[in-house]
Amino acid sequence: MNYILAFVVGGLICVAVQILMDNTKLLPGRIMVILVCLGAVLGAVGIYEPFSKWAGAGATVPLLGFGNTLWKGMKEAIDKEGFIGLFKGGFTACSVGVSAALIFGYAASLIFKPKMK
Q1: Any domain includes 81
Q2: What pTM, to 2 d.p., does this model score?
């Protein structure tokens, strides 16, 4: 049942973003920034944590989850280290995911031949 819930929630997030892309003139990069910032804001207000516990990977994998991870990392680092944690916390919290994306993306580019248009 957890898999189905994650699939449905992740799909609904994607549907909402697709509707936003189809009905506005916002570029995809700006929409991605909006999603990351929205995830951070929802985490700051305390809404995203219960939502992600309920929805599982359907809420933590999309860009909303990335923004929430940045927020949690900054909050923990600020509590521990003070003002400097504002700059360090987000990088520390998401470094593994970003590193994995870069490494796997590079490995995929070596295995498959990308074609530029």
Answers
A1: yes
A2: 0.76
